[in-house]
Amino acid sequence: VIKKVYPYQLTFKYPFKIAHGARTGTDVVYIEISEAGFTGYGEASLPPYLLETSDTVIQWLNSVELDFNIADYSAEIYYRIRHQYPGNMPALAALDMALWDLKGKTEGKSFRDYFNIPDANTPCTYTLGISNKAEMEQKIHEAVNYGFKLFKIKLNGTDDVQMLADYQALTHLPFMVDYNQALDDVSVAADKLSWLKQLGCILVEQPFKKEMFMDSAIITSSKTIPVYADESFQTLTDLPNIPGAFNGINIKLMKCGGLTEAINIITEARKLNLSLLIGCMSESSVGCTAAAQLAPLCDYADLDGPYLISNDPFTGMKVADGFITIGDIKGIGTKPTPLY
Length: 340
Ligand code: MG
Known about the structure:
- By secondary structure, the protein is of the alpha/beta class.
- The chain contains eleven helices and 15 strands.
- The strands form four sheets. An eight-stranded parallel β-sheet has the order 4-5-6-7-8-9-10-11.
- A hairpin with a 2-residue loop joins strand 13 and strand 14.
- Helix 1 crosses helix 3, helix 5 packs across helix 6 and helix 7 runs parallel beside helix 8.
- The longest helix has 19 residues.
- The structure holds magnesium ion.
- The site of magnesium ion (MG) has 6 residues, from loops.
């Protein structure tokens, strides 16, 4: 088994503004693992609020010894690695992705074949960062041309009325809202949810600071609009905190440590009657195509990463007629382009 690790910087088409700041790009690390003429690819994405950096990811990936045949890779081996090399979820996610990709290519199977995941039409959102009306018009126009029919609008608690007035003047397509922890008052949040319901908003993600479970439980129990956890939910061990406080969770491979853990989260979350969104950080086609393998098991996908960057070195999942599509490809379904 040959392992190679490369840092890369993704560049956004537009500077990305949310409730706590603006960015023009994101550092990622790619890993490729080769055996018998096949190569599996993985990606770790490092937005600045994660504790890990490109350097810690590269160090972690270089330190892991792959002392097994790719044919034997399984959830059991994944959890052995997870315990032997603790921490660094983005690096673990990248490794797990690359191993499933290589295993699938070697054995002529897709990731979905290993877990009996059916194909299904999962709607995919396109994210609108905080924007003025002209910027929003441009972004909606592009997204609709790409095939998106659902938007996730980032709000910050202060420009909400203007943002949604602009949105509804520009399109009648459905939308959800992501506050990214911008709210800290229950009565303000309750008013916002009633207002959002009137406007037809389908769900609200992370209105409160991530530790405000009790406050979240109050607005969730009002049953105004479904409330989803993103920052309040990282990985399987956080799941017991969710029922009551939220109606659903946003699962991301970079938070939970990869596809193998995500499959377990999905199984356990469904037992708790939670709704599911499969999301991404700022990721290229490697991470988003891996996540797209899980889309049929989730209610919504938020896998617009490749559409928001100008230098994607891979191809893979696409959105068509509002839904996620991945071709009939082996492994996770991503291929390098000449940019790689
Ligand atoms: Mg979010």
